[in-house]
From TrEMBL:
Chief localization: cytoplasm
GO terms of biological process kind: L-histidine biosynthetic process
Role, per record: Catalyzes the condensation of ATP and 5-phosphoribose 1-diphosphate to form N'-(5'-phosphoribosyl)-ATP (PR-ATP). Has a crucial role in the pathway because the rate of histidine biosynthesis seems to be controlled primarily by regulation of HisG enzymatic activity.
Cited SUPFAM superfamilies: GlnB-like, Periplasmic binding protein-like II
The family this protein is said to belong to: Belongs to the ATP phosphoribosyltransferase family. Long subfamily.
UniProt-recorded name of the protein: ATP phosphoribosyltransferase
Pfam family, one: HisG
Gene (UniProt): hisG
Organism (species): Isoptericola variabilis (strain 225)
Pathway(s): Amino-acid biosynthesis; L-histidine biosynthesis; L-histidine from 5-phospho-alpha-D-ribose 1-diphosphate: step 1/9
Length: 282
């Protein structure tokens, strides 16, 4: 059985469970359940603290796990990214009270607070910037400057709302762009069953990212329309009974749906329909 670690709490937990359920796996009903066997699919889930997922995967006690790229790097565990999952996207950034620090080099001699101290130390080490201290905090890092334990913070930023509320501003380039990732142990050959899990998760990711677009277009305009909707390999083009038009079906990025529909309409396509993809294997 493939042993899969899943975050039991925090930002990653709900979306990770949703994705696994969409991929056809059993998921727990009660958040106090810590182990769940899904014998029909040949997998076993272990619900662990998000920070611990990489530690278990790195030690080989579970085969794969879902965690954040930032947590993986901070753990320094013997594990590698296997598949980016496209949710819990965030950046990891330095921030300080508005106008006090504007460049990463100015962190030299200052105190930096973070929940990701290994990640911060590695990053500053690579840049050759020496802070006076790197202060480890469990959370609510944005309050540390006001409360006087640090001059600068390094933390997860998504909308920036938390930073603004604390009177802080980001500075320097993002340290990292993070998202949820499926990880496995470094160097090991792929555990049995990982290929199926990977294909299933890729199917969910594609079904979320793409829609199916159907439209009718006069035959002489097919080439022009197809250039706008090239699909994955090549779109399906079927003749209509009237002999003058064709029906075209292609996958299109969900985020581009309306732009593509406008362009197709402009070319002369009509009856443009958008359908969500429930599941897929490419
Ligand atoms: N606001 C957010 N938006 C997107 N991703 C986030 C956000 N907050 C945390 N994350 C991501 O969640 C992971 C951190 O897991 P963690 O369990 O610490 O989440 P959390 O939401 O901070 O949980 P908690 O605060 O309950 O401990 C990291 O990969 C981080 O990038
Ligand atoms: O840019 P934003 O959209 O405001 O999101 C970023 C905030 O979300 C997370 O905090 P969380 O709520 O998990 O609290 P924590 O600091 O206690 O972990 C993260 O640590 C940031 O503080
Ligand atoms: Mg948090």
């Amino acid at each position: 059985m493939l042993r899969i670690a899943v975050p039991n709490k925090g930002s990653l937990s709900g979306p990770a469970t949703d994705m696994l359920r969409e991929a056809g796996y059993r998921q727990r009903r009660d958040t106090r359940e810590l182990v769940l066997a899904d014998a029909d699919n040949g997998v076993e889930f272990f619900f662990l603290r998000p920070r611990d997922v990489a530690v278990y995967v790195g030690s080989g006690t579970v085969d794969v796990g879902i965690t954040g790229r930032d947590l993986l790097l901070d753990s320094a565990a013997d594990a590698v990214e296997h598949l980016p999952l496209g949710f819990a996207t965030s950046t990891f950034r330095f921030a300080a009270p508005a106008g006090t620090v504007t460049e990463v080099e100015q962190i030299a001699g200052k105190r930096v607070a973070s929940s990701y101290t290994t990640l911060v130390a590695d990053h500053l080490g690579r840049l050759g910037v020496e802070p006076s201290a790197i202060v480890h905090l469990d959370g609510a890092v944005e309050s540390s400057v006001r409360l006087g334990v640090a001059d600068v913070i390094a933390d997860v930023v998504e909308t920036g709302t938390t930073l603004r509320a604390a009177g802080l501003e980001v500075f320097g380039e993002p340290i990292l762009r993070s998202e949820a990732v499926l990880i496995r142990r470094s160097g090991d050959s792929e555990p049995e069953g990982l290929d199926v899990l990977t294909r299933r998760l890729q199917g969910v990711i594609t079904a979320r990212e793409y829609v199916l677009l159907d439209y009718d277009v006069p035959i002489e305009l097919v080439d022009k329309a197809v250039a706008v909707t090239p699909g994955f390999e090549s779109p399906t083009v079927s003749p209509l009974h009237n002999g003058e038009s064709a029906a075209v079906r292609a996958m299109v990025r969900r985020s581009e749906t309306n732009r593509v529909m406008d362009a197709l309409y402009e070319i002369g396509a009509r009856g443009i329909l958008v359908t969500s993809i429930h599941a897929c294997r490419l």
